Amino acid sequence: MNSTSTDAPLGIIGAGLMGRGIAQIAIQGGIPVVMYDSRPEGGEEARKAIVATLQKLAEKGKIDAADVEKAVSRLTVAGSLAELSPCATVIEAIVENLDVKRELFVALESVVSPECVLATNTSSLSVTAIAAACKRPERIAGFHFFSPVPLMKIVEVVSGPLTDPAIADKLIAMAKRMGHTPVKASDTPGFIVNHAGRGYLTESLRILGESIAPYPEIDRILRQAAGFRMGPFELLDLTGLDVSQPVMESIYDQYYQEPRFRPSPIARQRLAAGLLGRKSQRGFYRYEDGKKQEPAEAAVPPRADRPIWIGQDDATAFPAVGALLDQLGAPRDKGERPGEDSLCLVLPVGRDATTAAVAAKLDPKRTLGLDPLFLDGRRTLMTTPLTDPAARDAAHALLAADGVAVSVIHDSPGFICQRVAATIVNIGCDIAQQGIANPQDIDRAVTLGLGYPKGPLALGDALGAATVLDILDRLHEFYRDPRYRPSPWLKRRALLGASLLAPDC
Ligand code: NAI
Questions:
Q1: Of the candidates 478, 421, 430, which has an alpha carbon nearest to the alpha carbon of residue 452?
Q2: Ligand 1 pocket check for 122: Cβ under 6 Å
Q3: Helices (H), 133-185
Q4: Is 123 assigned a catalytic role?
Q5: Please, what's the b/e burial string for 287-321 (b: 16 or more CB within 10 A of its CB; e: otherwise)?
Q6: What is the pTM (predicted TM-score) of this model?
Q7: Residue 330 gets which letter from DSSP?
Q8: Cα-atom radius of gyration of the chain, to the nearest Å?
Q9: CA 137 to CA 127: how far, in whole Å?
Q10: Per-residue pLDDT tens digits for 312-323
């Protein structure tokens, strides 16, 4: 058989969770597959599982019954590595261990033709380090799929410094035949998706660590006000802290303690306590019969209106808030300065309620912040350390009067949504700045791989690059933590009024 013809088989080594998924989409895409596993029964078990999955899909009417037979006929199980010799491409999906993978690639080189493309599905090892032991490292690339492979329609095509660009192009073409969206990444820790995903979890853990809000409230806010499909703590429970904490620590260390990725001692301690998540029935949440037990939400206090005052600058910057207060029937104090009994509502961007109250010379006992950038789905109110509970409850009752939920949180520069969103945008921008991937691929990878409502760069454009820059600069000023230093990619585009999706010339 000619190993470079389009019908030359694809070799898949490792018939576990990932190998099976990759084999399934390959044979569905018309690619003949030879599958090998070092466990003698591994390949046959995988074949049976793939046939059962395809039959189930046909029973549900998701695929044509005639296609099942055709797809299955393309799948062969190999009894030895040597049977992979006619393959034009081989994808490795064995155990995540550098030495074992290196050994396999060296052995493979003596089996396949010199033109054969060799790919690894590693998610956390360096593709370059795997390739380094080989005679022809230029034909080795990463081909990083996500679980479950047939449903996660994204694959990262990862090139190391020695990878021949033609190899990445061949993998891109193959991904498309499999019905997947390929994105190109350079070989760096976390590639795109696991790198971009650091912001959501680490910033949420930081917010929790600062007692700004309890975790169910942080989840509710990020789901309902910012539109994330899952709250960060629900997500940590789903993945399991035994998986996510080592990833957080490894990426932080691989980037030489980059403060943007700093892991949380809270997560490390909960891992030590065995609070893994769904798999141990208890993580941040408790699970009964696999069902998450949602802690009760604070009741809305009875309505007790008093005049509400907004400063002129805030009213001009966010006319939607004034319109909302009128719609809720709020008695407005429209004086230049607030009257004696009036509630003072500040609308900070990147600031906390205390800083905003002090800057405007307001009484902190009567001052509350409302997040003006995330008003839909759920509203976030923020107190100063001195806010009087009666003032807090009056504002809560008023803002919940139309049935939209309200979360009351402690003081935080940029509330919860602003700072989490700004962190995600900043990390996405820096992935672009480092040239790890192009802006479009970054957004594609994040929407498909992480399920975020928008890619980090499109999210930054929606908020406005200048606004994101303000949030980060103010967070940076408040905490004096380099974690919040803005990426040059963001800073320059904010100064130029350009889209964050605009590539460098
Ligand atoms: P798995 O444990 O389900 O399957 C691994 C298979 O490889 C097993 O059947 C094992 O018998 C076989 N194997 C081990 N050493 C071998 C060798 N030297 N030669 C041939 N076969 C060998 O593992 P899974 O989850 O499928 O992961 C495979 C790879 O994919 C790992 O590199 C992992 O990091 C990566 N990955 C895993 C993801 C996941 O969510 N599980 C997501 C993305 C990548």
A1: 421
A2: yes
A3: 165-177
A4: yes
A5: beeeebeeeeeeebbeeeebbbbbbeebbeebeeb
A6: 0.95
A7: P
A8: 26
A9: 10
A10: 999 999 999 999
CA atoms of 321 and 318, how far apart (whole Å): 6
For residue 147, the ligand 1 atom closest to its alpha carbon is: 40
The yes-or-no answer on residue 438 being catalytic is no
Length of the chain: 505
- Tokens 């034909």 belong to 139
Residue 68 clears pLDDT 50, i.e. is over it: yes
| C-alpha span between 175 and 25 (Å, rounded) | 9
Closest Cα to atom 19, ligand 1: which residue? Answer: 38
What percentage of the chain carries pLDDT values higher than 70?
Answer: 99
Cis preceding-peptide flag for 503 (omega within 30 of 0): no
Q: How many angstroms separate the first and last alpha carbons of the chain?
A: 45
Check if the beta carbon of residue 406 is closer than 8 Å to that of residue 398: no
Q: Which of 59, 60, 71 is nearest to 27 (CA)?
A: 71
Residue closest to 93 by CA, chosen among 130, 56, 44: 130
Instruction: Answer whether 449 contacts ligand 1 (Cβ < 6 A).
Output: no
Chain centroid offset of residue 241 CA = 16
| 100 CB within 6 A, ligand 1 | yes
Reduce the DSSP state of residue 346 to 3 states and report it: strand
CB 264 within 8 A of CB 206: yes
28 contacts 53 by C-beta, under 8 angstroms: no
Q: How far is C-alpha 113 from the chain's CA centre?
A: 38
Give yes or no: 396 in active site. no
308-310/291-293 β-pairing: unpaired
* C-alpha–C-alpha distance, residues 201 and 230, integer Å: 11
In tens, the pLDDT along 225-235 reads: 999 999 999 99
Q: Residue 422 region, left (φ>0) first, then alpha (ψ -120 to 50), else beta?
A: alpha
Provide the token pair at 264.
């949380």
- The contacts of residue 226 (CB under 8 Å, 6+ apart) are 374, 417, 420, 421, 453
Could you give the CA distance from residue 500 to residue 505 in angstroms, rounded to a whole number? Answer: 13
Mutate to test the pocket of ligand 1, among 24, 37, 247 (most ligand atoms within 8 A of CB): 37
At residue 279, the pLDDT reads 94
- β-strand 154-159 against 140-145: which pairing, if any? antiparallel
| Helix or strand holding residue 247 (H, E) | helix 241-254
Q: Show the DSSP H helices in 283-416 as ranges.
A: 312-317, 319-327, 353-359, 389-399
Is 448 in contact with 181 (CB distance < 8 Å)? yes
DSSP state of 433: H
